Amino acid sequence: MAPEIKYTKLFINNEWVDAKSGKTFATYTPHDGSVIAHVAEGDKADIDLAVSAAKAAFHRNSEWRLLDASARGRLLNKFADLVERDAQYLVELESYNNGMLLNLAVHFIQNSSRSIRYYASLADKIQGDTIPADGDLFSYTLKQPIGVCGLILPWNGPIAMFINKVITALTAGCTVVVKPAEQTPLTALALAALFKEAGFPPGVVNVVNGFGPGAGTSLTHHPDVAKISFTGSAEVGKLIQQAAGKVNLKRVTLELGGKSPLVIMNDADLNVAVPCAANGVFGHQGQICIAASRLFVQSGIYDEFVKRAVEFAKNIKIGNPTEPTTQHGPQVDGEMMEKVLGYIEKGKREGAKLLTGGKRVGTKGFYIEPTVFAGVTDEMTIAKEEIFGPVQSILKFDTLEEVLDRANNTNYGLAAGIFTKDINNALQFAKHAEAGNVWVNTYFVFQPQLPFGGFKESGLGRENGIACVEPYLEVKTVAITLPKKF
Ligand code: NAI
Ligand code: MG
């Protein structure tokens, strides 16, 4: 049964309001492409209102700013309690609007509630230093929240991204205006309602749905927004940094795309490496920034690996993501499906060997078969560009030195993985891979304790880990002259 859709308006100053223009836009379920709700479409006027509310909530005398840091932590834990209470509903809504498998949505929400509690525990540990400056000075630093933060979300992990960004900003004591992705507006609204229920003061969390040009650009160009945190395409990430430079030098955190290499050495345990590599690129239908989209297999095991990879892909069960036994659901929308099918055609045209998959499934919804290409070479488009779909591209290599250079030969640098039993190979790879995350004999390790982010065009800054709050803080240095020496 379809989950109930309780909220479709904008959430500003703890109130549900229509867009100033009165406009709405349709949102769909990717299972069959049917409309499931009409959602208020925010634009500049609504962003202005939301930023004003967030600015008022950030005033030095506001209820939010006067809260003790430990009380902020307790409020965040209260929010975690509510997320856990409503987890089943949130998971179903995520799956319905996004096409995410139920199991994956459960995994994300469990990880998110761990994140909230992890960050909540940091709220009262934000502290500066006392510094032995020269002369008769008493010097110390204060770490203070940066102000109103604009948080722009992608559609591929709506709940996880919302929680991650909002919670980090709130831990620091900031206030936020969230612009969810236009493909997946619903779970952000359900989470906004939980902030209100938890007792967060008006204006601390605001959610304005809408499109990139419009709501998104109004936020990135707003002079009262002190920081933008964005996850999405590298193309838009660059625009956001430009807008920041043009308007008010907003601080910017960017988590962008990837073309992550996964290297399988001759000595790898194929019973582990084959499924891990498959999950690394077919998981969430390939719509993950850290997808293992360049699979380098050493020549000694290449043929055997390819045979097993094809077998694995053929046995993946495709179906409605809201059914618990399904292993592979739809792409998020028709546009993404067409984009991925376009890459598959390019792969064929440029001479890669299509060994399984490659086609749309059915005529309703946005399903694509798990697809395996072998014989992929570095200059092919499918080895260079982010596909964001269920396409495994297998490349052959001979030596670690060779594969390191080839793996690093990309503008991206989000993740990299290696399967080997040789500790020296693993350590050399970990040292030289140009990527923010390196995984050895595993793939997809993602936890609140572990910093996450990208080298090169995969991003700017890090999320998660103890330092995650820093980008939401300003450091203030205070120096006081002491009257005279005793
Ligand atoms: P996108 O980067 O256009 O959209 C992400 C978010 O940015 C959405 O909320 C969108 O409304 C907003 N946005 C778009 N243009 C904007 C602008 N000019 N100013 C401010 N906000 C703006 O990504 P899209 O179009 O959904 O996907 C395109 C490609 O990006 C995908 O094929 C994939 O390769 C990559 N991508 C990477 C993600 C990641 O996790 N790093 C997530 C989503 C997409
Ligand atoms: Mg876009």
Structural class: alpha/beta
Which compounds are bound in this model?
A: 1,4-dihydronicotinamide adenine dinucleotide, magnesium ion
The CATH class label of the largest domain is Alpha Beta
- Tell me what portion of residues adopts beta-strand conformation: 15-25%
Number of extended strands = 24
Provide the CATH topology of the largest domain: Aldehyde Dehydrogenase, Chain A, domain 1
Write the layout of secondary structure elements.
Elements lengths: L9 E3 L2 E3 L6 E5 L6 E6 L3 H14 L5 H4 L2 H17 L1 H12 L3 H19 L9 E2 L5 E9 L2 E5 L5 H15 L2 E5 L6 H13 L6 E3 L4 H9 L6 E5 L2 H14 L3 E5 L5 E4 L5 H13 L11 E5 L3 H13 L19 H16 L3 E4 L3 E2 L5 E2 L2 E4 L6 H4 L6 E7 L2 H9 L6 E5 L3 H10 L4 E4 L11 E2 L5 E2 L1 E2 L9 E9 L5
Helix pairs in contact: 1-8, 3-5, 3-7, 4-5, 4-7, 5-6, 10-11
The structure holds 1,4-dihydronicotinamide adenine dinucleotide (NAI) and magnesium ion (MG).
The site of 1,4-dihydronicotinamide adenine dinucleotide (NAI) has 25 residues, from helix 8 and helix 9.
Report on the structure:
- The protein is α/β, with parallel strands linked by helices and 486 residues long.
- The chain has two domains: 10-256 and 454-477, Aldehyde Dehydrogenase, Chain A, domain 1, CATH 3.40.605.10; 261-440, Aldehyde Dehydrogenase, Chain A, domain 2 (3-Layer(aba) Sandwich), CATH 3.40.309.10.
- It contains 15 helices and 24 strands.
- The chain has helices at 44-57, 63-66, 69-85, 87-98, 102-120, 158-172, 186-198, 212-220, 234-247, 270-282, 302-314, 334-349, 381-384, 400-408, 423-432, and strands spanning 10-12, 15-17, 24-28, 35-40, 130-131, 137-145, 148-152, 175-179, 205-207, 227-231, 251-255, 261-264, 294-298, 353-356, 360-361, 367-368, 371-374, 391-397, 415-419, 437-440, 452-453, 459-460, 462-463, 473-481.
- The strands form seven sheets. A seven-stranded mixed beta sheet has the order 14-17-18-13-12-19-20, sandwiched between helices. It has a six-stranded mixed beta sheet with strand order 9-8-7-10-11-22, with helices on both faces. It has a three-stranded antiparallel beta sheet with strand order 5-6-24, with no helix packed on it.
- Helix 3 (69-85) runs antiparallel to helix 5 (102-120), helix 3 packs across helix 7 and helix 4 (87-98) crosses helix 5 (102-120).
- The protein is globular and about 75 Å long.
- The relative contact order is 0.14.
- The mean pLDDT is 97.
- The site of magnesium ion (MG) has 2 residues, from loops.
